[in-house]
Specification:
- The N and C termini lie far apart (148 Å).
- The protein folds into 2 domains: 112 residues, no CATH class; 206 residues, no CATH class.
- By secondary structure, the chain is an all-alpha fold.
Length: 361
């Protein structure tokens, strides 16, 4: 027959089982917290703090078998913080759940829009990318060529078909080195350059006096007589322009400015490409012909420092052009202007022939 002690022991065992069942959620929470240890380290700490009293209760029940009512009351008091903590945990997790749900809905609803924007962006990049890259390459090339033209001018040389342009790359931004290197090139290759200049001269539709004068200038340069070259060629250039192209009204005014204006006017009949040099080199050449050759000498020192002769400075005795550089630049000036004269004469004749042919049909 069961005694009171047996009955108590049975009730105590039942309570322990019940207590163990109630503690199961805590174990589950601990497991889930362990899975997300990084974000919930503080939660684990607090959970451990609240779990400790239950271990003490179990120890007290086993050791002292206190009255069941007191244990129940004590257990209820100890569970209250845990219930509050569980509520706080659920409240803290709610925002994350809502954010996750809203994000999932947004991505699902707008994925098609994002995909369409991405597709159109790819098409736009493909459509615009190549022209933009080509334009950037072209602008970069213009900048480089303009810089080279400026360097050649600073080195004191007129751009010409015989110019050793490769030296612009080899000398970098060293203007003094570039000037010396160009002169060295012309000295070492003068035989070939001289032959090229004579061949070009003989092909121009200008009178024999002009060709003889230029040949004399080339021979003086060849022999090292640099000073007479500039003063010999400038008057002949003016004579040929007037004789071959006409329409220059000298009156009693200085001839120089008139010729300068006329060079600018006839420049409208040709293109930069007709000067044989492309891009900024062609622009630099024509700019020097129009704006430098016949410019008024306002700064003698600046004009003297320029390797390209100025007509007014030379013929009025303001600057003595005696250097190798002055001489060869003067020859280049004559070559370029006589080529322009030849070209314009040819174009005018073609226009005249075309008009005659049209009137006869």
């Amino acid at each position: 027959m069961p005694t009171d002690a047996d009955e108590f022991q049975e009730r105590l065992s039942e309570f322990q089982r019940s207590l163990a069942n109630q503690l199961n959620p805590i174990a589950e929470i601990q497991r889930r917290i362990a899975e997300h240890a990084a974000p919930f380290a503080d939660i684990q700490k607090r959970l451990a703090e609240h779990a400790t009293p239950f271990a003490d209760i179990q120890k007290q029940i086993a050791a002292h078998a206190a009255p069941f009512a007191d244990i129940q009351k004590n257990l209820s008091e100890q569970f209250r913080p845990l219930a509050e903590f569980q509520k706080q945990l659920a409240d803290q997790l709610n925002p994350f759940t809502e954010i996750q749900r809203d994000a999932a809905e947004a991505l699902e609803n707008h994925f098609g829009v994002f995909e369409e924007v991405r597709r159109q962006a790819e098409q736009f990049a493909e459509l615009v990318g190549k022209p933009v890259a080509k334009f950037a390459e072209m602008v970069g090339s213009f900048v480089v060529e303009k810089h080279k033209a400026d360097l050649l001018t600073k080195a004191g040389y007129l751009p010409h078909i015989t110019t050793p342009f490769h030296l612009l790359d080899e000398c970098g931004n060293d203007v003094a080195k570039l000037s010396k290197s160009i002169e060295k090139y012309y000295r070492e290759n003068w035989t070939a350059v001289r032959a090229q200049l004579i061949e070009r001269l003989n092909s121009y539709a200008i009178d024999e006096d002009a060709k003889t004068t230029v040949m004399q200038a080339i021979e003086m340069h060849h022999l090292g007589f640099y000073r007479p070259v500039t003063n010999l060629l400038f008057p002949e250039i003016e004579r040929v322009v007037i004789a071959e192209l006409g329409n220059v009204k000298i009156n009693d005014k200085p001839m120089g400015p008139k010729i300068a204006n006329y060079l600018q006017q006839i420049g409208e009949e040709i293109g930069i490409s007709d000067l044989e040099l492309r891009g900024f080199m062609g622009l630099e050449l024509f700019g020097r012909l129009v704006h430098h050759l016949y410019a008024n000498v306002k700064n003698k020192a600046l004009m003297q420092a320029d390797g390209v002769p100025n007509r007014n400075a030379a013929l009025h005795g303001l600057v003595i052009y005696r250097s190798y550089k002055n001489s060869i630049n003067a020859i280049f000036i004559a070559d370029v202007i006589f080529r322009i004269v030849d070209l314009i004469k040819s174009q005018r004749q073609q226009t005249k022939d075309h008009e005659v042919a049209g009137s006869g049909s």
